[in-house]
Amino acid sequence: MLSISKLQINKRQNEMPGKITLTMIKPLAVKKGYIGDILSIIIKSGFKIRAMKYLKLSIDQAKAFYKIHEDKPFYNNLVEFMSSGPIVAATLEKENAIEEYRKLIGATNPEKSEINTIRNLFGTSLEKNAVHGSDSDENAEIESDFFFSKLERY
Ligand code: CMP
Question: Candidates 22, 63, 78, 136: which one to mutate for ligand 1, based on the most atoms within 8 Å of Cβ?
Fold first, then answer.
């Protein structure tokens, strides 16, 4: 049996700093039944799932997750939408994960997103754009820690 400190060291050795991103499949995409299709695209594109959860955010949890946007005019609507139904949250790993995942999901606004990207295929509007993707290595760590403890990341 490993001691807690050894478990923590093993977790750090397994993880590849700078090679992860955090995604959420947003409530409307979940409601429309797109979880399987989206995960299939993610896996076929070479991302490894390091952690995953199906859950519903409370208003306070959605506020905390999107705190970086609290001054934006769309913040309240975004928080309300993100807590309106279940989501899938996952930490994904790949070389250049942030950039590669942003390429795979396309522009924030599905109407402006590149053809066959996830947001282009499954997004409905700027707010209901099917999936979230971290915008930096630092935020990927912060966002992964938001959803997953060390013992939930493999
Ligand atoms: P996401 O990747 O989850 O990060 C922040 C979210 O805010 C973004 O996707 C969009 O869904 C949403 N967002 C960004 N800009 C706007 C905007 N101008 N109006 C409404 N929602 C926005």
Answer: 78
**What's the pTM?**
0.91
Which atom of ligand 1 is the closest one to the Cα of 127?
Answer: 11
For 121-129, the CB contacts below 8 A with 24+ separation are 121/37, 122/29, 122/32, 122/34, 122/37, 122/38, 123/29, 124/28, 126/74, 127/74, 127/77, 127/78, 127/81, 128/26, 128/27, 128/28, 128/29, 128/81, 129/26
Residue 127 CB less than 6 A away from ligand 1: yes
Q: 16-152 has which fold?
A: Alpha-Beta Plaits (3.30.70)
Cα(149) to centroid(ligand 1), Å: 26
Sequence ranges of the domains in the chain: 16-152
Span 12-18, average pLDDT: 57
Please tell me if the CB atom of residue 74 comes closer than 6 angstroms to any atom of ligand 1.
Answer: yes
Each residue's pLDDT tens digit, 110-119: 999 999 999 9
